[in-house]
Amino acid sequence: MRRRQLGLMLAPYALGLVALVLLPAAVTLVLAFTEYDLVQPPRWTGTDNFTELSGDGIFRTALLNSLVFAAVAVPLRLVIALGLALLLHRRARGVGTARTAAALPTAVPEVAYGLLWLWLFNPLYGPINQLLRVGGENGLTALGRTPPQWLTDPTDARAAIIIMSLFTVGESFLVLLAARLVLPPEVYELAAVEDATPWDVFRRITLPLIAPVLGLLLVRDTILSFQMSFVPALVVTDGGPPPYATTYLSLFVYRNAFEYLRYGYASAATMVMLLLTVAAVVLQWRMLRRWQQLRSLSR
């Protein structure tokens, strides 16, 4: 009877998993070996799509952009989320408002969030560059330099996409806040008795206890990093400035599938993105297990 109840409870999730994840993944895998334009029936081409990808300069640029974004944005997002969690875990006046403010950007629809940053990053009239010009003369900053050209300079545009991602750490912040609140207070009381410095408390108590949660969020954010750059790159920079400075794998797939109607080619790029995600997760998992083993041996 209990197993039947559990089965009924899991049935909606299992149905959604099959219909929305496994079945589309299987279709994408098959389409990756075909040529399909949504008009003619799919035509089997073997590994031609993957061969073409290997020689596609735009794909290589999108791949590099995605890897750089993941390498820079993911650690910064975790550091910011952890810092906010440690800063706001105590009860004090205004803490509830601050927690809400930290989590609120995550709840904003992605397109609206992108349009807001499109205004903020406006090189001429945007508030960010206006603030940077305070104290400067002739349109320069106080240091005598030209303000960043967020929408026209390739390096500045990549930095803008990363900056946008740093304000949507609400989910990670809430998870780390919950993890910090459930840590046993006895260990902190003992550390206070021994006159431990705040750095020692963080390094020897908080970080080791919260490390499993950080590891889980690291894996999660790495997976999401190949997706979260899509809307900002589409809405704010449109994949530019030339040559494809903010074209990421997700935007590359979108354009080939829905603008150029090359579904087979887009499916092959999707499979590459999936394999990269799996490789990154496996590598991080092994590193975390290795770190745990070294930790246990050092005790």
TrEMBL record:
Record keywords, A-Z: Cell membrane, Membrane, Transmembrane, Transmembrane helix, Transport
A cellular component annotation (GO) from this entry: plasma membrane
Spans through the membrane: 67-88, 100-120, 159-181, 201-219, 263-285
Family annotation (InterPro entries): ABC_transporter_permease, MetI-like, MetI-like_sf
UniProt membrane topology term: Multi-pass membrane protein
Domain ABC transmembrane type-1: 63-284
Domain of life assignment: Bacteria
Pfam families in the cross-refs: BPD_transp_1 (PF00528)
GO biological-process terms attached to the record: transmembrane transport
Family: Belongs to the binding-protein-dependent transport system permease family.
Name under which the protein is recorded: ABC transporter permease
Annotated localization: Cell membrane
UniProt source species: Phytohabitans houttuyneae
